[in-house]
């Protein structure tokens, strides 16, 4: 009989990639494809290893079992990396994303409720209108025969327009108005969060550079706009008390929460969570849309299959109703496959709240942990022919492969902190991809190898240039 091996493994037993004497692996970790560098190290050092970021040692885990346990043991045993909270708070963001413990629990409930299936169904007219705007913009590119469109900018504008209306009922049309300051301000924030979280020394506090100063101005401008929205929403609730029963947007719903006795929603938290919606719903969704287009522009037969599915499901340019989207199964499979191969959140940063043991691995209190989640999606034992883009693997009756293990995909995180915007983003992406493929042929205007992954808290495609041709 085999007895289970109960020998404890400590962090000291794990290997560490060679780095420089003082900064350790920091130089590699500053690179824009750091998530892929970690994947390479997994091949060399195994699913568990440590890296040195200057004086700090961090555990890297690409083990799906351990990663799943860490995700599930929150908020008690693990939290987000405390540096994330530090950077967020310094920017004035008191949000559900960086809250912990009881404070997080109280914020999570109303945020998740505002994004549940029933609410998203109610938001569909907004998604439909913004998709129509996007399609008319792409129509313009096609009519003027433009052959190198940096489509990610339009996807960012689309997601900002959708989330601003859902968040505080404000109608933006960034897609047709590039000058809109909101997009410009928000675009600065994500890369700066990434830089600051991974910076060994907070240089922006000691010697702020031009970008730091610009960020400060942008944060100030956003604050002014959002506090004005809060003031207006408060007034609306006073004038129309019936809105308290049925708030018309996310901000009104949070204001109702803020009137409860044990509320955690003060002005700062209201502001923070509106910002969180905008930030969390922007890059993640627009990057995933862009990566999906990256594959579609190389697979005309797949575009054709989506087109046929769209023609069968609805008659106009954009799906008329939320209910029609359940029939866009192939479109959904294409997006799942793009997420598997190009997750926009391939690594997540955590910290241990207490001494813990998971599967013989002893993790001391305060250990910094990087969950490398994209490695597992690229393994043939989880997904046969893992490197191949094949949406059919997501359709049970058409899956040509033996191995299919969707549980290892953690693009939306997991456990009680699973991304609450997952359903909303899937609805947005299905609507957009189906609609684009219904009306346009796509071509990549650059060699696929020139489209590079850039990790700036989320991974976006650099140099993605696409040509759109209207189909008859
Ligand atoms: C493709 C699109 C998206 C991806 C890949 C994505 C991914 C993620 C991931 C990985 C997390 C961390 C989860 C964890 O810690 O376990 C997260 C958290 C979060 N996401 Fe998303 N997200 C997307 C879209 C959205 C949208 C559209 C919204 C809202 C408008 C949203 C709101 C949030 C919020 C509020 C959190 C914090 C949840 C918490 O800490 O409890 N996300 N998301």
UniProtKB/TrEMBL annotation:
Q: Which domain of life is it from?
A: Bacteria
In this chain, heme is annotated as bound at: 419
What keywords are annotated for this sequence in UniProt?
A: Heme, Iron, Metal-binding, Monooxygenase, Oxidoreductase
Instruction: Name the cofactor(s).
Output: heme
Which InterPro entries does the record match to this protein? Cyt_P450, Cyt_P450_CS, Cyt_P450_E_grp-I, Cyt_P450_sf
Family recorded in the similarity comment: Belongs to the cytochrome P450 family.
Recorded protein name is: Cytochrome P450
Q: Which organism is it from?
A: Tenacibaculum pelagium
The major lineage groups are:
Bacteria, Pseudomonadati, Bacteroidota, Flavobacteriia, Flavobacteriales
